[in-house]
Amino acid sequence: MTDIAIRPATPADMPRLIDIMYDDPPSDMRAMEPDVRKAKALGALVMRAGLEIAVERTVVAVVDGRPVGLLETRRPGDASQATSAFAIPIILMRGLPITGPSGLVRYFRYQRARAKVEIKHPPEAYYIGELDVDPTCRNRGIGAQLLAHAEAEARALGITRMALCTGISNPAQRLYERSGFKIEETRRHADYERVTGNPGRVLMVKDLG
User: Fold this and answer.
1) Residue 199's beta-bridge partner residues?
2) What Å distances lie between residue 49 and 31, 70, 92, 93, CA to CA?
3) What pTM did the predictor assign?
4) Greatest mean pLDDT among 38-47, 72-81, 123-132
5) From CA 138, how far away is CA 143, in angstroms rounded?
6) Over the chain, what is the mean pLDDT?
7) What is the CA radius of gyration of the chain?
8) Helix, strand, or coil here: 39?
9) Sign of the dihedral through C-alpha 194, 107, 119, 58
């Protein structure tokens, strides 16, 4: 297991957060832009607009002074990620030079499909919104240490449940199962699978009692 330090993320970490999230773009981002280079550029726009993660609710795993993993969480009562009414249109317009007009078509097709598999997490749970590790640093225990950090904070706050949502075919599901999470709800839809290649999404929970 790799020795890491975990600290709060800052705006100065944004370039590394983008690398961690999009050097290997998730299937949902590839559904909007299949080209890896363009997907990362589009992801950078989304991240800088605050539509993907909230930096103030994110911690980073650091190895040798370099962030190599990130964890975004939400406590019970925390507001959902706020999105300005103008943010998405602005991102779409700024993304046009990257994806071209066909990118807009893919975006709206993806959003319609994603809505069909969306699962609400339990409001009383400590929710893991995002967990990702640099592709070059995976399988070294960093994800497990970030999950342990989240669990320690949840227990310190007296919260008795944790939850997360992920894709059915996401390999990270095995990490969550090893950490004690169990599938509580599954949603599948042919449209979502056709667009992303992923059959659907699952809600996973862990009881801390």
Assistant:
1) none
2) 20, 18, 11, 13
3) 0.90
4) 123-132
5) 8
6) 91
7) 17
8) helix
9) positive
